Amino acid sequence: MLYNAYEMQRSLLAGASAMANFSAGLLQNPAYPFAYFGGGPIMASALEVFAHASAPRGKPAFGLESTVVAGKQVAITEEITLRKPFGQLKHFARQGVNGGPKLLIVAPMSGHYATLLRGTVERMLPFADVYITDWRDAKLVPLSDGTFDLDDYIDYLIEFMEAMGPNEGQGGSHMLAVCQPSVPCYAAACLMSADKNPCRPKTLTMMGGPIDTREAPTAVNTLATQRPYAWFEQNVIATVPNSYPGAARKVYPGFLQLAGFMSMNLGNHMISHWEMFKHLVQGDDESAEATKDFYEEYRSVCDMTAEFYLQTIEVVFQKHAIANGTYTHRGRPVDPGAITDIALLAIEGERDDISGLGQTRAALSLANKLPADQKKYLMAKGAGHYGIFNGSKWRTKIAPVVEQWIAAHA
Prior knowledge:
alpha/beta, three-stranded antiparallel beta sheet, 14 helices, 18% strand, globular
């Protein structure tokens, strides 16, 4: 019922958005007399904000066509290295550029598409041969393709690293986890190290990840621990409607995840839209477009499988399994002590309201057999959760540290 109600509302809003967009265009048309009188420009701006806020959205494109390597402009071609039912390994091939470190950027499976990391990819392209985990919207995956949980996530990561090839040659292979995937990436590193897998990464960078959520718990952590497992199963899991390929699949809908994130900072989001309205009234289209671009990405959401979401809630947030040494992957213990030659970099944002200070840094102390010179911690001053991997602080303060760490252990 929840998903069907949402679909009905989405259809209604799509029609209202189209009408508002048409009306805004009419009021901005120089040939329309009322565009010059009364509140015409103000009404047009208000309609444009509403149209943008209520428009339906699909999966955005990365749109990265070129980069600059060693002072030369080179073309970027998106290639699919490996396809799996719930995700694919996407490669941003730099035409005419050979060698350099291979970097797997692991995008969160948290309601947003991998394109949320467009800025992360763009910044690393001049330095590395970049790959990314391009997760699929669960409502588009037929039931016949099976299930996908946290154990499958780890299996995918290992397969993706193996698809990138043995960890040899110029620069070697490296892994960068943004937020939620820090846990499965850390687990994959433990397992690959224990197996002496030749494709294990030379470095693992974890950014704002919930390795130990008992450290400086945030509102997200509190929500996950105050309610029992059964509450999440009964209240946030929905069934995909028949109109989608994944009909009858149990999912945690992306629209619920988005609603949760929006409500956490509702005041800031309202101010952002008010500022966008003022920019449109003043004719400052460039500033208005910047806000539009951010929300175009932020509101593009996808579903995740119920089994993955529920297992993450239980294992990561309620049992703190990886932090207290009880985490297992398909019955096999995950031992951070197995990491002896994968250099670890933990990055946290000073103002992160999703993963508190100390939650990611815990990964360094858990890897108790890794030499101290193979561990590094960075606290990004003034950076919030989103700012760790996107924006000016990421580009100028954080990314250079990541590059130096990878280069030092390539």
